[in-house]
Amino acid sequence: MKIDVLGCGSAFSLNHTTSAIRIIDDQQSQWLIDCGPTVPRALWNREVDINAIDVIFFTHIHPDHCAGLAVLLNHWKSFGRVKPLQIYCQPEQQTVLVNQIALANWPYTGLTFPIEILASQPTWRWRGWQIQTAFAQHEIPSQAIRIEADNHALFYSGDGRPTDATQALMAGSTLAFQECASWLPLAADASHGDYPACLALCEKLALNLMVLYHCQDADRPAIAQACALHPHLRLSDDGAMFDLARPNRLQTAW
Ligand SMILES: [Zn+2]
Q1: How many independent structural domains does the chain possess?
Q2: Is residue 145 part of a domain?
Q3: Paired sense of beta strands 233-235 and 123-126, if any
Q4: Span from the CA of 58 to the centroid of ligand 1 (angstroms)
Q5: Most buried of 18, 33, 216, 225, CB within 10 angstroms?
């Protein structure tokens, strides 16, 4: 299973694509996690085939995590995608996605491929993958996700500070992506992660590799410097590639 970091940026980053990853397994099944406004361009730059992505999972529907959906669907429609698409999202947040699907080919309603919107559950199976979700501490409900396949586990936090539930999903993962907006500590009831708390969690769980993302532009240099000194922490970057079988080996940029 390979992880392609499409973007690691915060909501209004001047330098980085909005946070999203693409997951590709050995059978070439592909998931996209989140689709912010600059994510479609990252896919086009990689020349990802219009039929390649099977599923889009939304951690939550803040604009920097979902506002690219209409554009991506419009692109797929314009170039004749035929593969059915599944979208997983919390049931209470699906209306926003329905509106984006309506925008994708407005005023027409049809696309060239069917879309199935499914409710993300605490746990379910997808092909050979075991999926689990848990809620982080964020402004609106935001789901972290753990995907287990081929004896490896990927964790992706979505937005928000870790909770007991997301820490339980993160424990024992091969590769954990954790939202870390701030270099300086934030209040315990804040809506985003911070470096001191991420460092403490990485050490508490004895993680193999915690990759920090969604950092504020101004905070990246300090976080990068600190991560460079820690064997189990890394600052994410647009275009970084991870192989879940060898997560600690730095892959060349896409
Ligand atoms: Zn958010």
Answers
A1: 1
A2: yes
A3: unpaired
A4: 11
A5: 18
How much is the pLDDT for 248? 78
Alpha carbons 38 and 69: distance in angstroms, whole number: 10
Protein residues placing their CB within 5 Å of the ion ligand 1: 62, 159
Domain that holds residue 48: 2-243
Ligand 1 centroid distance, CA of 60 (Å): 7
Instruction: Tell me, in angstroms, the distance from the centre of ligand 1 to residue 61's CA.
Output: 7
For residue 101, what is the domain's CATH number? 3.60.15.10
Quick check: is 254 in a domain? no
For residue 66, being part of any structural domain is answered with: yes
Tens digit of each residue's pLDDT (9 = 90 or more) over 150-183? 899 999 999 999 999 999 999 999 999 999 999 9
Ligand 1 mean position to 138 CA, how many Å? 7
Q: Distance, CA 140 to ligand 1 centroid (Å)?
A: 7
137 C-alpha to center of ligand 1: Å?
Answer: 10
pLDDT in tens, 193-220: 999 999 999 999 999 999 999 999 999 9
On whether residue 250 sits in a domain, the answer given is: no
